[in-house]
Amino acid sequence: MDEAIRKAEVLIEALGYIRTFRDRQSVIKLGGSAMEDAETLRATLLDVVFMATVGMRPLLVHGGGKAIDQAMRVEGLQPRKVRGRRYTDEKTLAIVVRVLQTLNAGLVSQIRALGGRVVGMTSDTLQCLFGERLVLPDEAGRSVDLGRVGGVTRVDQALLTDFCAAGVIPVIPSLALDAAGAWLNINADTAAAAVAANLRAEKLVILTDTPGILRNRGDKASLLRNLDPETCQELIAQGIIDEGMIPKVEACLESLRAGVRQTHIVDGRLRHSLLLEIYTDHGVGTEIK
Q1: Crossing angle of helices 188-199/245-257, nearest 10°?
Q2: Rounded distance, CA 163 to CA 121, Å?
Q3: Which domains can be identified in the chain, with CATH numbers?
Q4: Which end of the chain has fewer CB atoms < 10 Å from its terminal CB, N or C?
Q5: 7 falls in which pLDDT band (50, 70, 90)?
Q6: Terminal C-alpha separation, the chain
Q7: What is the arithmetic mean of pLDDT over 76-98?
Q8: Residue 205 CB: number of other CB atoms within 10 A?
């Protein structure tokens, strides 16, 4: 009986959040180990289906870095990063597109098997991200060649909104089309931020391979649960936020500037971390708002 009462109390705790976020869009970025372990992935997708079932309107944006690295090695290609982004020549681009489309189909199939209504945004008629080649400066101010790496210039907001309003979960790979109709490889954090910003979503949740933002790397007890943009910039300047965490935090800050109300960086390896972060009083990751 005590266990049943505890479960009922959890549901009551979630009720207020369900009411608050009902009919509001939330963008979830899926990547890293959350996509590698079958049970963890299933738990995350079940969280997404739960969100849709109680009236929250989730959109899933995914990358596929580890699967892409493996596919490149099979074909004798060495992955190369330039300023944290995958250098993408034509051979690499073909692998990226193939892997992301395959992963997308798998995610759609699993969500459907869990009872969710879902659509994969991979065909030309359902493409929702559009962009142009990304140019980054180096320390001397010279342009850095990234190949077919892009930045998002437009999101088909109406298409995504229509699906969400109908209770359908859009699953969006981190690919965009340029003006000539050719593919661009988009950083998945950047893609998720662009979707959240253009929709002015209620939340952006980035699932990653750490508990959140740690003041001391390797010390889970140093988790910073609540941050604001100014503090994030200070932590970047101090080197506390560094390497792969920087583009995730920058994605959160970009979303906040565009009108997204709350952003979260959460450990995707923790079962049901998505629900724990959104529907409980204390959460399990770092919230930036």
Answers
A1: 10
A2: 11
A3: 2-288 (3.40.1160.10)
A4: N
A5: low
A6: 39
A7: 89
A8: 27
Q: What's the confidence (pLDDT) of residue 139?
A: 64
Q: Which residue would you say has higher pLDDT here, 124 or 180?
A: 180
The DSSP-derived string for the chain is: -HHHHHHHHHHHHHHHHHHHHTT-EEEEEE-GGGGTSHHHHHHHHHHHHHHHHTT-EEEEEE--HHHHHHHHHHTT----EETTEE-B-HHHHHHHHHHHHHHHHHHHHHHHHTT--EEETTSGGG--EEEEE--EE-TTSPEEP-BSBEEEEEE-HHHHHHHHHTT-EEEEESEEE-TTS-EEE--HHHHHHHHHHHHT-SEEEEEESSSS-BSSTT-GGGB--EE-HHHHHHHHHTTSS-TTHHHHHHHHHHHHHTT--EEEEEETTSTTHHHHHHHSSS-SSEEE-
Q: Do residues 222 and 216 touch, judged by C-beta distance below 8 A?
A: yes
d(CA 188, CA 192): 6
What's the rounded Cα separation, in Å, for the pair 104 and 182? 19
Length of the chain counted residue by residue: 289
